[in-house]
């Protein structure tokens, strides 16, 4: 089970039903601030894995906190789509920067 001082924030706040899980989306979006596409996909993958661990913990150890079966996939897909949007945004910015650099030379 765990104690509140030993649990992760999302476990202490209600497992996979917690609003703290929105932090995963913020991490993915915030990874764009480093302007590195590889980092975006690393953070996206780690966020998906972290959410999977939280869901698995709830299913195996605390069934009352387990999310409905139809709620897991949409959240995982939203993490992936957010990563894709950030990836495409960074590619577009790089292309625009290169084009501007060529015009100024």
What is the element layout, followed by pairings?
Blueprint: H1 9-12, H2 22-30, H3 37-61, H4 69-103
Helix pairs in contact: 2-3, 2-4, 3-4
Tell me the Rg in angstroms.
Answer: 18 Å
Helical percentage: 55-70%
Number of domains: 1
Strand content: under 5%
Number of helices: 4
Task: State the distance separating the first and last CA atoms.
Answer: 63 Å
- Overall 3D form: rod-shaped
Structural class: mainly alpha
The stretches of 5 or more residues where confidence is low (pLDDT under 50) are: none
Q: How is the main sheet built?
A: none
- Helix-strand topology string: HHHH
Q: Which whole number gives the mean pLDDT? A: 87
Total beta strands: 0
Architecture overview:
This protein is mainly α. The protein is 70% helix and 0% strand. It is rod-shaped. The model has no long low-confidence stretch (mean pLDDT 87).
Defining traits:
single chain; 105 residues; mainly alpha; 4 helices; 70% helix
Short recap of the structure:
This protein is mainly alpha-helical.
């Amino acid at each position: 089970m765990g104690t509140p001082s030993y649990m992760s924030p999302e476990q202490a706040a209600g497992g996979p039903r917690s609003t703290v899980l929105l932090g995963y989306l913020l991490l993915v979006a915030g990874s764009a601030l480093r302007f590195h596409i590889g980092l975006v996909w690393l953070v996206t993958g780690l966020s998906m894995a972290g959410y999977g661990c939280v869901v698995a913990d709830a299913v195996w150890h605390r069934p009352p906190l387990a999310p409905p079966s139809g709620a897991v996939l949409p959240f995982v897909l939203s993490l992936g789509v957010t990563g894709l949007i950030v990836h495409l945004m960074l590619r577009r910015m790089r292309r625009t920067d290169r084009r501007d650099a060529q015009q100024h030379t």
